[in-house]
């Protein structure tokens, strides 16, 4: 399989009254065709902004894509003009948003919203588009699709609306779906339904997915690869199996340790990560995680660690070997 | 559903004390009205439909369920923020549904609430000191201003903030710190009982663990009793002594923490537990997952018989007609209440 998307040294800053917020500060990654990548991090770590930047959905100003390349099918989307991007949005790259309540237009029927994209991108006539829309709704498991196509978003439940969002995202056979917290607003039992559906359909269609989430558990089952973000950068990346079994960044380790797990014996106390996420306007020099890090050494205050090779296709941005607590030998990320 | 014995009267759970809150046959129906000038009642939302349980002094009762199942309404009914349609709520020997005015206000000092959204539950125009000091003032718990100020500073220290934070405003704090302020406000009146309504749900994972640890430390320090309402089952299991599972206005299962996770009896509890993702791909791949079909029905038109039958994988004809009795199936003195025909 070939490389579908390649992101290089991407930086997106927001120029606010308080100062420059470095929401995404130099991230690089590649995505294979049909691959499912989990992008994990807490609020404000830049995970959503990094996805929005791919489709240039950043309000400018105050936002600005300061530097970087996003190569999709051989073309740099950052340099591409608005017309070109518009031909890609909702077509080859589509999005599933967190809030199924607010991301569908309340005054248009579901059918209208589905056929609009199909007519535009797939150049179908109205009747063909309607037929395709009904097919899509059946595919995502909406009962009586042919009748419900005339309904408005408020006539659907939250879970059903998220199904409609998935139908909308898949309507033009995209190469890549950006799913931004697709299940966060939903109930636990519905969450399982929706993720199962999204990953099943995209696997069948060979579509790559980036699942953005704050919940480490959500991506464990579905992602091939996981990238963990902190303070605008990717601090650890590797196969899902590696990241969970053998976390090499103190932040990833801290996250995994701080959540109670249903499959383990109950502990009397949780192990939280002390302190708070840093202020992205005034980042401390060196590693941004240093103030909260139990492993920090002198070097961490001076140099911001790049991603270092720590295992089979597994990189972590940390000067210290988590297992031994000793400084790590330098092997730079290629 | 008839309840001859409430879960209290069966037995006490050893290390925890006597019953502090006793809820019996509680119903809360909200009217749905229609019309512009003359409001006519056209339907009822049965937010809570006949539930009974008790909470013992010093314990944490977890209340889990999906949105709209009535868990928040239950908490609010206990605090008398809603006037229940029927049923009784007994708090430390006092029937709350029958008292009002000053008597109710005096009881309210002993019952507090911590809210879900730390952004919406603090008045942005009040300083932190005023927010925490207000309940002390209202209930007359400090002799004068300086004593009140001291008390506020002490509370801030108790929840892990700095005394100088008293002069700051909510917007200067992060979500986790705001939740600490909400906790300090609840503690200000020295309550016996606190309803934590999704108190950690809005927080980031790394901060969530800090606040959960704080809640547990405070419980030991002040011998607090919690009703911990949440939808995250792994968090509920961590913090609770006993757990009640709600579905569409009914409690479908109630037992102690370990029993619920090791031996869930109700098909809804089983599905809920299997839906909780575990942060480990190796475990996840081997796990069997029960995926429930469809959505939670509307509480405006709850299904006949067992309310869960529309989504239940093992429902039989009886479930569609007959409401299952909430009965105790525990053995060897343990209690395990469940409402299901099939167990």
Q: Please name the fourth-level CATH homologous superfamily of chain B.
A: P-loop containing nucleotide triphosphate hydrolases
Q: Span between N and C termini of chain B?
A: 17 Å
Q: Radius of gyration of chain B in whole Å, from Cα?
A: 21 Å
- Low-confidence blocks of residues of chain A: none
Beta-strand content of chain A: 15-25%
- Please bin the fraction of helical residues of chain A: 25-40%
Number of helices of chain A: 11
Question: Quaternary status of these chains?
Answer: heterodimer
CATH fold category name of chain B: Rossmann fold
The gross shape of chain B turns out to be: globular
Structure description:
The complex is a heterodimer of chains A (334) and B (343). Chain A has 334 residues and is an alpha/beta fold. Chain A has a domain at 100-171. Chain A has helices at 47-54, 82-88, 110-122, 126-139, 145-148, 158-170, 188-205, 216-220, 240-245, 250-258, 298-302; strands at residues 3-16, 19-32, 36-40, 63-72, 75-76, 93-96, 176-180, 208-213, 225-230, 233-239, 308-311, 314-316. In chain A, the strands form 2 sheets. In chain A, strands 6-7-8-3-9-10-12-11 form an 8-stranded mixed sheet, with helices on both faces. In chain A, strands 2-1-4-5 form a 4-stranded antiparallel sheet. Chain A is globular, with a radius of gyration of 21 Å. Chain A starts with a strand and ends in an 18-residue tail after the last strand. The relative contact order of chain A is 0.13. The mean pLDDT of chain A is 87. An 8-stranded mixed sheet of chain B has the order 6-7-8-3-9-10-12-11, with helices on both faces. In chain B, strands 2-1-4-5 form a 4-stranded antiparallel sheet. By secondary structure, chain B is an alpha/beta fold. Chain B is globular and about 70 Å long. Chain B has one domain: P-loop containing nucleotide triphosphate hydrolases (Rossmann fold, 3-Layer(aba) Sandwich). Chain B starts with 6 loop residues before the first helix and ends in a 5-residue tail after the last strand. The A-B interface holds A 42-43, 157, 159-160, 187-193, 196, 214-218, 220-221, 240-241, 244-245, 254-256, 258-263, 266-267, 269-274, 276-277 and B 66-67, 174-177, 204-210, 212-213, 216, 231-235, 237-238, 257-258, 261, 271-285, 289, 291-292, 295-296.
């Amino acid at each position: 399989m070939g490389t579908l998307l390649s992101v290089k040294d991407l930086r997106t800053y927001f120029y606010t009254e308080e100062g420059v917020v470095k929401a995404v500060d130099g991230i690089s990654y590649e995505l294979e065709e049909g691959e499912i990548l989990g992008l994990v991090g807490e609020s404000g770590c830049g995970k959503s902004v990094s996805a929005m930047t791919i489709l240039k959905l950043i309000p400018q100003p105050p936002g600005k894509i300061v530097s970087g390349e996003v190569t999709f099918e051989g073309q740099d989307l950052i340099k591409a003009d608005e017309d070109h991007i518009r031909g890609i949005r909702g077509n080859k790259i589509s999005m599933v948003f967190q809030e199924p309540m607010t991301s569908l237009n309340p005054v248009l029927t579901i059918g209208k919203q589905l056929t609009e994209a199909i007519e535009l991108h797939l150049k179908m006539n109205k009747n063909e588009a309607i037929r395709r829309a009904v097919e899509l709704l059946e595919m995502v498991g909406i009962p009586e699709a042919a009748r419900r196509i005339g309904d408005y978003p408020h006539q659907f439940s939250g879970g059903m609306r998220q199904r409609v969002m998935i139908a909308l995202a898949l309507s033009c056979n995209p190469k890549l779906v950006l799913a931004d917290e697709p299940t966060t607003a939903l109930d636990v039992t519905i969450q399982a339904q929706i993720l199962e559906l999204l990953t099943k359909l995209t696997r069948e269609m060979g579509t790559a997915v980036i699942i953005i989430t704050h919940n480490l558990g959500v991506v464990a089952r579905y992602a091939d690869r996981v990238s963990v973000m902190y303070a605008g950068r990717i601090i650890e990346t590797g196969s899902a199996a590696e990241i969970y079994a053998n976390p090499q960044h103190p932040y990833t380790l801290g996250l995994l340790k701080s959540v109670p797990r249903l499959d383990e014996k109950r502990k009397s106390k949780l192990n939280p990560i002390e302190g708070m996420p840093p202020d992205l306007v005034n980042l401390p020099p060196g590693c941004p995680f240093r103030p909260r890090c139990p492993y920090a050494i002198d070097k961490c205050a001076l140099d911001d660690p790049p991603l270092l090779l720590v295992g089979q296709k597994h990189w972590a941005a940390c000067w210290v070997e988590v297992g031994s607590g000793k400084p790590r030998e330098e092997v730079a990320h290629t | 559903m008839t309840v001859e014995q409430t879960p209290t009267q069966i037995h006490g759970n050893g290390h925890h004390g006597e019953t502090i809150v006793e809820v019996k046959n509680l119903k809360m129906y909200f009217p749905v009205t229609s019309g512009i000038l003359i409001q006519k009642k056209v339907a009822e939302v049965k937010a809570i439909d006949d539930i009974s349980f008790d909470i013992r002094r010093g314990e944490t009762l977890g209340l889990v369920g999906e949105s709209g199942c009535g868990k928040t309404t239950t908490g609010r009914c206990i605090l008398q923020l809603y006037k229940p349609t029927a049923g009784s709520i007994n708090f430390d020997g006092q029937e709350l549904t029958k008292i009002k005015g000053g008597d109710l206000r005096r009881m309210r000092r002993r019952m507090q609430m911590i809210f879900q959204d730390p952004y919406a539950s603090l008045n942005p125009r009040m300083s932190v000191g005023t927010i925490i000091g207000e309940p002390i003032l209202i209930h007359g718990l400090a002799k004068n201003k300086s004593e009140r100020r001291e008390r506020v500073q002490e509370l801030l220290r108790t929840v892990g903030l700095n005394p100088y934070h008293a002069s700051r405003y909510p917007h200067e704090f992060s979500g986790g710190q705001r939740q600490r302020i909400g906790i300090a406000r609840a503690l200000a009146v020295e309550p016996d009982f606190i309803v934590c309504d999704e108190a950690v749900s809005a927080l980031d994972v790394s901060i969530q663990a800090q606040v959960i640890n704080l809640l547990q430390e405070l419980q030991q320090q002040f011998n607090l009793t919690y009703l911990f309402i949440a939808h995250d089952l792994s968090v509920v299991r961590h913090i609770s002594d006993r757990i009640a599972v709600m579905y569409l206005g009914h409690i479908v299962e109630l037992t102690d923490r370990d029993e619920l996770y090791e031996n869930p009896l109700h098909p809804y509890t089983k599905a809920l537990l299997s839906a909780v993702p575990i942060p480990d791909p190796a475990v996840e791949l081997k796990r069997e997952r029960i995926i429930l079909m469809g959505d939670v029905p509307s509480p405006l038109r709850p299904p006949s018989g067992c309310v869960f039958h529309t989504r239940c994988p093992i429902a039989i004809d009886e479930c569609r007609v007959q409401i299952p009795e909430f009965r105790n199936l525990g053995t060897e003195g343990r209690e395990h209440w469940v409402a299901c025909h099939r167990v």
